[in-house]
């Protein structure tokens, strides 16, 4: 049976001093055994490997050592700016290829009119436009191809399957097990099974 500890201030101070003394003793032992940073203790095996590696490495010649301090001939030149090249590439593209540079379909005029309907502070204007775009258009209707990697899953799924099957279920409940696991005839019962 353990002894009941008294919760007095003196006992708490005693424990605190005891922990501090123990920590100091551990730190002193660690410093003594490891030495200072300059004098890192190494094993003899490490020294042997180090000497073998140093003897196996080729020594650099004087000409190589001189090249270490030289700078490249064009180190003082200014770096090229490639921003103008993008504009040249765009102008050189054929009219068919320019459509590939636009990744979003144009916004319908009806939606654009919502921008100028009122102020955002009142829940109109930009706020109303963004809400309308968020709730009415799916990314497939807004963009030509998936921009984000999370759009890859399910992109153009409506072209392959029936839209009623991929819709959101009411009350956020799904019947995954019932629709995929059970057969069309239902669960077989013991009465229908023949022995």
Kindly describe this structure:
This protein has helices at 9-34, 44-56, 62-67, 83-92, 95-101, 109-115, 126-136, 139-142, 176-180. The chain is mainly alpha-helical and 195 residues long. The protein has a domain at 109-180. α6 packs antiparallel against α7. The longest helix is centred in the N-terminal third of the chain and has 26 residues, at 9-34. The model has no long low-confidence stretch (mean pLDDT 77).
Task: Set down the secondary structure blueprint.
Layout (H helix, E strand, L loop, with lengths): L8 H26 L9 H13 L5 H6 L15 H10 L2 H7 L7 H7 L10 H11 L2 H4 L33 H5 L15
Helix pairs in contact: 6-7
Largest sheet: none
Binned, the helix content reads: 40-55%
State which percent range the strand residues make up. Answer: under 5%
Stretches where pLDDT is under 50 for at least 5 consecutive residues are none
Please state the oligomeric state of the protein chains shown.
single chain
Determine the N-to-C terminus distance.
Answer: 65 Å
| Count of distinct strands | 0
Q: What best-fitting shape do the alpha-carbon axes yield?
A: extended
Enumerate how many helices there are, as a single number. Answer: 9
What would you report as the Rg, rounded to the nearest angstrom? 38 Å
Class inferred from helices and paired strands: mainly alpha
SSE string, helix = H, strand = E?
Answer: HHHHHHHHH
Average pLDDT value?
A: 77
């Amino acid at each position: 049976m353990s002894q009941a500890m008294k919760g007095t201030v003196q006992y708490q101070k005693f424990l605190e001093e005891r922990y501090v003394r123990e920590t100091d003793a551990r730190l002193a032992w660690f410093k003594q055994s490891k030495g200072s940073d300059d004098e890192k203790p190494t094993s003899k095996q490490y020294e042997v490997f180090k000497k073998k590696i140093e003897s196996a490495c080729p020594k650099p010649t004087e000409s190589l050592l001189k090249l270490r301090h030289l700078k490249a001939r064009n180190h003082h030149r200014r770096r090229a700016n490639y921003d103008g090249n993008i504009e040249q590439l765009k102008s050189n593209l054929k009219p068919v290829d320019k459509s590939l540079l636009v990744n979003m379909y144009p916004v319908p005029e009806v939606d654009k009119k919502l921008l100028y309907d009122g102020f955002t502070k009142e829940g109109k204007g930009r706020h109303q436009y963004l809400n309308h775009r968020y709730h009415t258009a799916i990314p497939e209707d807004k963009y030509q191809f998936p921009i984000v990697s999370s759009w890859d899953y399910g992109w153009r799924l409506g072209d392959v399957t029936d839209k009623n099957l991929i819709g959101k279920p009411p009350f956020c409940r799904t019947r995954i097990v019932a629709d995929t696991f059970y057969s069309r005839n239902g669960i077989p019962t013991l009465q229908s099974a023949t022995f």
